[in-house]
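## retry 2 of 3
previous attempt timed out at serialization; input unchanged, resubmitting
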Amino acid sequence: MIRRVLIIVENMSVPLDRRVWRECLALREAGYQVSVISPMAFGMLKPRETIEGVSIYRFPTWQASGSAFSYLIEYSVALVCSFALMWVVWLREGFDVIQICNPPDLLILPTMPFKLLGKAVIFDQHDLSPEIYQAQNPGKPGFVERSLLFFEKLTYSLSDLVLVVNESCKKVALGRGERKEEDVFIVRNGPTLKSIRSARANPLLKKGMKYLLSYVGMMGPQDGIDVLLRATRDLRSVHGRKDFHVRIVGDGTVLQQMKELAAQLGVSDLVTFTGFLDYDQVLETIATAEVCLCPDPKTPLSDKCSLVKSIEYMSLGRAFVAFDLEEVHLAAGDAAIYATPNDEPDFARKIDYLLDNEELRSAMGNRGRERVLQRLAWEHSKQTLYAAYDKAFETRAAEGEEVPE
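## retry succeeded, writing output
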């Protein structure tokens, strides 16, 4: 019998969620039947389609505006739609294991009837939701934070296995999640070797300048795009540079706000905001850049969570500047140059220094690329994914369920 998997995502459409899509393709490659439930977003508006053998079911979304009430509506709509589509998938295709991807830590709720039917649940923890709230609402502990901790703990306790993105998140799962070591698997967010080898630079992206600085990633309040823009201002006004352009790739809740900030700082002529781009265009941007940027301020969240962009930068041999964050330092080592945490003038100084040192950029880039090839590329992580799924099916067998070979 074929092993059947259902993956549920709330905050990003598939196949645009690169982590989830890599997981889908890896499972298909291993012979699994894979179905996915995800929202309609970023042009992915078909309610039902099959891509590369993966069955995708999408639900309409209510986009939160930032208020607690808007998030309540968004998540309520998502939970109801996901629950309804789970029954549709179960009747049409069936599934043996359900993988739920946070945020939010609420997707455990619609899995409950299916756990009673003997289905195993894997919690794929992309982010630490309590830390996200703390980063966006510093100094405001209260009902919301306690609720986030409660639902995170509930998800930990009711899931059969946990996937995490790095060692720091594993420590959280073992600590406040009270999970056993053997039930937590590190599946990193590294790029595939194929994507690394196919990336090509495009000098036109430099807008006629000698250097390109690039940022790729989401654009939320915690991602430091404002830091990047103030560093851009300082590179011109403090360090006297007139030889660079900045390309900011991504979308998110603060995109329009950051465009307005760029105008206020007088750097709109130095910056291109591309919005959302497909993955090949993202890699093209990185491949063209002399220096890449991770402007995420140091917070309890950024210290523990891997920055996918940092690994993507390293995969293409690009040196980058970041604040000295624990997980970034563990992943990149000497492949990056680190500014004093949350010292914005120092962040600009480090960019200026790296632009003026081509040999250092090249050496750092080579070291980063080697780290990715040796241990951070997706090909290493997917073996851990397979081990987790083997254990999930063994768990079902131990509970008396019929388990496909």
